[in-house]
């Protein structure tokens, strides 16, 4: 079972997004609420969309490099959770 809380690292600079309520399809996260950004992460085909409600505010090619599942016992604000996830990549 895939975790409902994840941190995805995308792009060449591995920018982190902390997602709550992550939905998984075929081994990759396809949607979730971005905790460190007040928008919804949504994957459509090979594109990531930044959405609020039904409106798309930004889109870019799917370029997630790493996904770290966040266990239930990891707590803290989004900065602390992202820092924990970055440590998992080392």
**Class of secondary structure makeup:** mainly beta
* Mean model confidence by pLDDT: 95
Task: Kindly provide the radius of gyration, computed on alpha-carbon positions and rounded to a whole number of angstroms.
Answer: 12 Å
Total helices: the number is 1
The profile of the biggest β sheet is: 7 strands, antiparallel
Strand content: over 45%
Task: Enumerate the strands of the largest sheet in spatial order, edge to edge or round the barrel.
Answer: 6-5-4-3-2-1-7
Pick out the low-confidence regions.
Answer: none
What helical percentage do the residues reach? 10-25%
Number of domains: 1
Query: How do the helices and strands follow one another from N- to C-terminus?
Result: EEEEEEEH
What is the structure about, briefly put?
With 90 residues, the chain is mainly beta.
Keywords:
90 residues; mainly beta; 12% helix
Question: Strands, helices and their partners?
Answer:
Layout: E1 6-10, E2 15-25, E3 28-34, E4 39-44, E5 47-52, E6 55-61, E7 64-69, H1 78-88
Antiparallel strand pairs: 1-2, 1-7, 2-3, 3-4, 4-5, 5-6
Description:
- The chain is mostly beta strands and 90 residues long.
- It has a 7-stranded antiparallel sheet, with helices on one face.
- The protein has 1 helix and 7 strands; from the N terminus they run βββββββα.
- It has one domain.
- Helices cover 12% and strands 53% of the residues.
- The protein is globular.
- The longest helix is centred in the last third of the chain and has 11 residues.
- The mean pLDDT is 95.
- Strand 5 and strand 6 form a beta hairpin.
């Amino acid at each position: 079972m895939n975790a409902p809380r994840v941190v995805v690292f995308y792009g060449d600079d591995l920018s982190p997004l902390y997602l709550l309520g992550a939905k998984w399809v075929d081994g990759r996260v396809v949607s979730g609420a971005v905790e460190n950004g007040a928008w919804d992460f949504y994957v459509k085909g090979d594109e990531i969309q930044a959405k609020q409600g039904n409106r798309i505010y930004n889109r870019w090619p799917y370029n997630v490099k790493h996904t770290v599942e966040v266990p239930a016992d990891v707590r803290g604000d989004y900065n602390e959770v992202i820092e924990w996830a970055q440590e998992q990549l080392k």
